[in-house]
Amino acid sequence: MMDYYPQNERKNDVTNENEIWELAKVNLQKQLGFSDISMNLWFGSMILKVLTEDTAYFQIENDFKQNIINTRYLDDIKAVIAEILGFEVRIVPISIEKDTFESRLAEVITKENNDKEPYEKKESSDKASDSFVSKEIKGENEGLSGNVIVSRNSPGFLPEYTFDNFVVGNSNKTAYTMARTVAEDPAGSGLNPLYLYGDPGLGKTHLLYAITKELTARKPDANIIFVKGEDFMNELIEALANKTPVAFREKYRNADMLIVDDIQFIAGKASVQEEFFHTFDKLYESGKQIVLSSDRPPKDMQQLEERLRSRFESGFLTDIQAPDLELRVAILKRKAASLGINVPNDVLMYLGENIKENVRQIEGALKKMRALAYIQGEEINMGHAKTAVNDVLTNMAQAVTPAKILTFVSQKFGIPEEDIKSRKQTKDIKNARHIAVYLTRRLLDMPLASVGKLFNRDHTTIMSSIDNIEKQLKTSPAFENSINEIIREIKSGT
Ligand code: ADP
Ligand code: MG
């Protein structure tokens, strides 16, 4: 029987596979919003039997359930397993309705080997890099399912984003102290608005969650609104389309505290800035605390209206810088401990010296190492560290995909993705389309015909979009700035 198992399969360690699946199910339930009964119905009898470097094989009780899992839940399961392992694996449910798991597994693996032989090498290397990237991108949204989280029913707030779990060092001390002050005494803090800025992955969202959580605990009756900048924008656009702007306004203008993560998303869209301006003023004038985060200071937000810029600048601006070596190692130790992994000192130093700019990457590398060590049945060593660092750093650089560009442009300009790809010819839509086309071509170096396929256009139309943008780039330094800014944002994965 064992002959059929993939070579690098780890010696049977049932507890660990069980543990992974049990942990994954907790997140899966949150993600799907399922009751215990539905969870049990679909996933109760599912067992993670074999985990290899790239695949998780599940035993499942009958063909019917296997079919449902395959058609509906594969991506969700993949995401929650990736969250635990630190990288994605394929999910393969195997029904035991007609035969034992072992013989069915043997069949499946034999078939897979036959199918993939000619492409084997390329496929597996592509998959490895892709999967980690998409995980990192998804990571940004975890725990925030709806648009807005109000204190009384904050569903998926990541429990680890607390002040206690925030490791403080020179580069983030001021931001941390201000966040804490606001959370402990919003009315008396005098820090209004508090505006935190810094590059991606340095802990802004973490601090905003921590403030929200702390306040929710201290003032259970207060109406605290936490919203991501892009959700504020989308919600407003929807409210306008559905002719319900009054409800939207009431909701935000009645907040006791408004926390907006990634406020840079509202820049560039006049109606959204207009609405935010009035919300801001109303809250500010009634002495309500406002906390904002952004990837840059107000003065560098090119498309921000002047009146908003001056409001933001009148508050308390504080930046978070990249962590120094000492802080990086402190964060590594803390994260390793909370992930329950034992990392030797030379490995800690190696990671600390090589992953410099982004705390999210530090976490990614730790999870990756844990998974590699687990799968190979070894203690974590320098070999794992080198692979992990390599993966994390190269994948960050390659994170741009056509889908990501489209989503980004859609959010940035407030134009639905379908409209960008459609035939509609209004000025705003056309403009967003030209930019999306141009960026796809420029950032991915794709053939015109392939870009054309993505946007349902022939290659001459694609060329004229690109020309259009190139002309504007030549004639307008402001336009050039904003395009460069967009490129920077797309590449940094915000
Ligand atoms: P940002 O919002 O600035 O892009 P996040 O708040 O999402 O960054 O942080 C990225 C990841 O790094 C999160 O998992 C967060 O918990 C972690 N992190 C960042 N800074 C720290 C820190 N000082 N201590 C502990 N964890 C941190
Ligand atoms: Mg963030």
Protein model, in words:
The protein has 22 helices and nine strands. It has 494 residues and is α/β, with parallel strands linked by helices. The strands form two sheets. The chain has a six-stranded mixed beta sheet, with helices on both faces. A three-stranded mixed beta sheet has the order 1-2-3, with helices on both faces. Helix 1 packs across helix 3 (63-85), helix 5 (120-139) crosses helix 16 (382-397) and helix 13 packs across helix 14 (345-354). It is globular, with a radius of gyration of 24 Å. Residues 1-15 and 117-156 have low confidence and may be disordered. Residues 161, 165-167, 172, 198, 200-206, 331, 359-360, 363 line the site of adenosine-5'-diphosphate.
Short key terms for the protein model shown above:
494 residues, alpha/beta, six-stranded mixed β-sheet, three-stranded mixed β-sheet, 22 helices, 9 strands, binds adenosine-5'-diphosphate, binds magnesium ion
